[in-house]
Specification:
Helices cover 34% and strands 26% of the residues. The strands form four sheets. It has a seven-stranded mixed β-sheet with strand order 12-21-20-15-19-18-17, with helices on both faces. β8, α7 and β9 form a beta-alpha-beta unit. The protein has two domains: 239 residues, P-loop containing nucleotide triphosphate hydrolases (Rossmann fold, 3-Layer(aba) Sandwich); 218 residues, P-loop containing nucleotide triphosphate hydrolases (Rossmann fold, 3-Layer(aba) Sandwich). The relative contact order is 0.12. The radius of gyration is 22 Å and the shape is globular.
């Protein structure tokens, strides 16, 4: 079904897959469910793009070796031909969505396959149900949250009914319901003999479904076997920053928050939302929201896709104005966006990290070196932004915000593209800054991250805080 023989991929002089001595080889049988994982920058996304034929047909990468999918050599067949056999969901869903409305996006692929209107309609209905999108049918794509866009990208590929489905971090922005819904669909497709290849850092739910786990390090495989075999190698997993799946499936957030009976911390709040109503166009997202964060707090804001978590972040950062209510901010706010490409605009990593503090007159050599070290970017300081992996771009965006030393640091889904080693090291440092008085608002679907770091958890539902307590 998939045969990779002696594959090497280079971007300019930088080798991403393979080594000087040998290339990467891999064989995947029909109907296999394969989890690909490894540290950020290990070559996972590059491998998936090669399997889908984007490398070499739609990339400046230089490829050597052979990739055969569903009997087709990717170098000998065009992308339109390959697209009928292989479906790819990108790490950043916004890069593959271009229709105005949700239903049009899902229908676009089947229509271009020349299918009858009845078959297109059937596939659209099935794919939207499979991804949990029925309630968003008439919505404009640009009004969706990032998690909803991720579901839409998955539905659009599912509607093509490819025999091989390749997904790059499909659960990174999904809530619990969306994750279970999508993975349940993938499991059913696997039972119907579809081949599924997923690159993922959040190995919990995916690891329970996979037949096989393939771990990359610096462009070469370091483990390949059953989940039981691979996840038993604890020393290797720790070294690479790869998470082991937990024994228990995810629970609802309301069941994981212990009501907090303590009095609120003393002192004046650093930021406050009082009776805030906010939305986009005719759609109301927040309905009389009250929220406050004091200096030195590390607060997690959780909730389903589309609940309004990013809207809260943008209100506090001054990017969205409330329709009603008050927003009070008593200090500098730094915001990490969900999609790092929305806030990266300099040529190189070092220029990006230095840009903010230079504008504020805060830049010193010590600040720059310290911030690059915190995000493990020292070896990448001269790398061009668009030559970075998704995880490396996310770390660069994190560093550029942290370099401003804000009074409130807002991290909106900081897990995208991050292995646990890099993520926990960064959060440990953020925790030390938090101990010195910096307030942190952590917006995430990641249970483990909240459990390890949050002091207070707020569950956002129906435009208000529904539950508040400790993790």
């Amino acid at each position: 079904m998939i045969e990779v023989d002696d594959l090497t991929v280079c971007y300019g002089q930088r080798r991403v897959l393979g080594s000087k001595r040998s290339g990467l080889s891999l064989s995947i049988q029909p109907g296999e469910f394969v989890l690909v994982t490894g540290p950020s920058g290990s070559g996972k996304s590059t491998l998936l793009r090669a399997l889908a034929g984007l490398i070499p047909h739609a990339s400046l990468a230089h490829m050597k070796g052979r990739v055969v999918v569903d009997g087709l050599d990717t170098q000998e067949h065009s992308l339109p031909i390959l697209a009928g056999h292989v479906g790819l969901v990108f790490q950043n869903p916004a890069t593959q969505l271009f229709c105005l409305r949700v239903e049009e996006e899902v229908a676009f692929g089947p229509r271009n396959l020349g299918l009858s209107p009845d078959e297109v309609a059937r596939r659209v209905e099935w794919a939207m149900a499979a991804a949990g999108l029925e309630h968003l049918r008439g919505r404009r794509v640009n009004t969706l949250s990032d998690g909803e866009k991720q579901r839409l990208a998955i539905a659009a590929v599912l509607a093509m009914a490819p025999r091989i489905l390749i997904l790059d971090e499909p659960t990174s922005n999904l809530d619990m319901v969306g994750t279970r819904q999508v993975l349940s669909t993938l499991e059913r497709l696997r039972r119907e003999s579809s081949t599924v290849v997923i690159a993922e850092h959040k190995t919990g739910e995916v690891g329970r479904l996979a037949d096989r786990v393939f771990i990359l390090e610096k462009g070469l495989p370091v483990a390949d076997g059953s989940p039981a075999e691979v996840f038993a190698r604890r020393e290797m997993l720790h070294r690479l920053g790869v998470r082991r799946p937990t024994a228990h499936p995810q629970s609802d957030w309301a069941d994981l928050i212990a009501p907090n009976e303590d009095d609120p911390p003393p002192g004046e709040p650093l930021v406050e939302l009082e009776g805030v109503v906010a939305g986009y166009g005719k759609r109301q997202v927040l309905a009389g929201l009250n929220l406050s964060i004091r200096r030195g707090e590390l607060v997690a804001l959780v909730g389903d896709n589309g609940a309004g978590k990013t809207t809260v972040a943008r209100l506090l950062a001054g990017l969205v104005k409330p329709r009603q209510g008050k927003v009070r901010v008593r200090g500098r706010v730094g915001l990490l966006f969900q999609n790092p490409l929305e806030q990266l605009f300099c040529e190189t990593v070092e220029e990006e990290v230095a840009f903010g503090p230079r504008n504020y007159g805060l830049l010193t050599p010590a600040l720059l070196e310290d911030t690059l070290a915190i995000a493990d970017l020292g070896s990448l300081r001269n790398r061009r932004i668009h030559a970075l992996s998704g995880g490396e771009q996310q770390r660069t965006a994190l560093a550029s915000v942290l370099a401003l030393r804000p009074d409130l640091l807002i991290l909106d889904e900081p897990t995208m593209g991050q292995d646990w080693g890099h993520l926990s090291a960064f959060m440990d440092h953020v925790g030390r800054l938090n101990g010195k008085g910096m307030a942190i608002l952590l917006i995430t679907h990641d249970y483990e991250l909240v459990h390890h770091y949050a002091q207070r958890v707020l569950l956002l539902r129906n435009g208000r805080i529904a539950v508040e307590g400790s993790p």
